[in-house]
Amino acid sequence: MRSALSEQQFPQYPAPVAIQPAPAPEHAHHPWLQHHFDNMEQQAEASTLGMWVFLSTEILFFGGLFMAYLVYRHASPEGFQEASHELNRFWGTTNTLVLICSSLTMALAVRAAQTGQSRKTQVGWLLGTMVFGVGFLGIKAIEYYDKFVHHHVPGPYFHWEGMYPKPAEQFYSLYFAMTGLHALHMIIGLGIMAVIAVMAWRGIFDEEYYTPVEVAGLYWHFVDIVWIFLFPLLYLIGGHFKG
Amino acid sequence: MSGHVAPKSMYVGIWFALVVGTVLTVVAAEVDMGALNNVAMLLIACTKAALVILFFMHVRWSTRLTWVVAASGFFWLLIMFGLTMQDYLTRGWVPGTWR
């Protein structure tokens, strides 16, 4: 109708032609590609970048506690050394090694998803990571129990035999705040791993789409890095303490 | 997706370096080196953290933008440490200004 009309009115113009749809892609896009991204690379890049922005806030979240540690340790270095000497260095070292192993299994879990290995392999590495994570928390529980038994928990029942009871209480306040916040991150990390393991078991991940494993890995490695600094700062400063 | 696939042997190598770093820190803590103890411990810790960030967290193969964002967190951390400690470390330098 309309084209006939326009031809009547404006015979010099050809009839309007319907706009052609864009040529169909050669193959359909990946099922996990969100419509607001151009392609899988862009989507993955946006996710990892967003995770790094979050991790930057986490650096400063823990940074506040490290700052407090620095100030109070500077105020009473001998007291901190004496208090640090009471921490169990064997368990501290063991836990550091446990976390390093969990980071390796995490990196291999990402690699398994990235190279499109079987879902059994993917879930296996993720479960391995979780086992190390639970082991870490178990050892932490042993240490916390020991501190409660010896009245080294800050508060009305805090008791200190050494020369510096007040700095020691400050040290243990920071010890519980820092390792407690770290342990909370481990617990959250275990929850994330459980979700990712279920996703992996459903066979969601392949060479094209493994961003959730990658991003969860970033979180897990970050928690590992926090411990890499906590371990020497809390456990090792009483190294050659004579008292 | 064109994510970099690193060989398994590289991950195991980084893991081994981290284990060696941990053992080194514990050994270094037992030796009395005076003020150098803290320097050694923190140097080893920073090296271990750098290994994890660059290889386990794939920053080595990430875009410049990721590099900048990852570095910015540590940059602001250093500003916080620096500006706070320039107060605490210099108290008492001028007579009558302690606390």
Describe the structure.
- The complex is a heterodimer of chains A (243) and B (99).
- By secondary structure, chain A is mainly α.
- Helix content of chain A is 71%, strand content 0%.
- Chain A has 7 helices and no strands.
- The longest helix of chain A is centred in the C-terminal third of the chain and has 37 residues, at 165-201.
- In chain B, α1 (8-30) packs antiparallel against α2 (36-56).
- The mean pLDDT of chain B is 90.
- By secondary structure, chain B is mainly alpha-helical.
- The longest helix of chain B is centred in the C-terminal third of the chain and has 25 residues, at 64-88.
- Chain B is flat.
- Chain B is 70% helix and 0% strand.
- Chain B is built from 3 helices and no strands.
- Chains A and B meet through α2, α4 and α7 of A and α1, α2 and α3 of B.
Number of helices, counting only DSSP H or I runs of 4 residues or more of chain B = 3
* Sequence of secondary-structure elements of chain A: HHHHHHH
Rg estimate of chain B, integer Å? 19 Å
Q: Biggest interface in this structure?
A: A-B, 56 and 50 residues
Principal-axes geometry of chain A comes out as: elongated
Count of DSSP-assigned helices of chain A: 7
Regarding quaternary structure, how should these chains be classified? heterodimer
Low-confidence stretches of chain A: none
**Sheet with the most strands, sense and barrel status of chain B:** none
Mean pLDDT of chain A: 91
Report the span from N to C terminus of chain A: 102 Å
The share of residues in helices of chain A is over 70%
Average predicted confidence as pLDDT of chain B: 90
Strand coverage percent of chain A: under 5%
Main beta sheet of chain A, described?
none
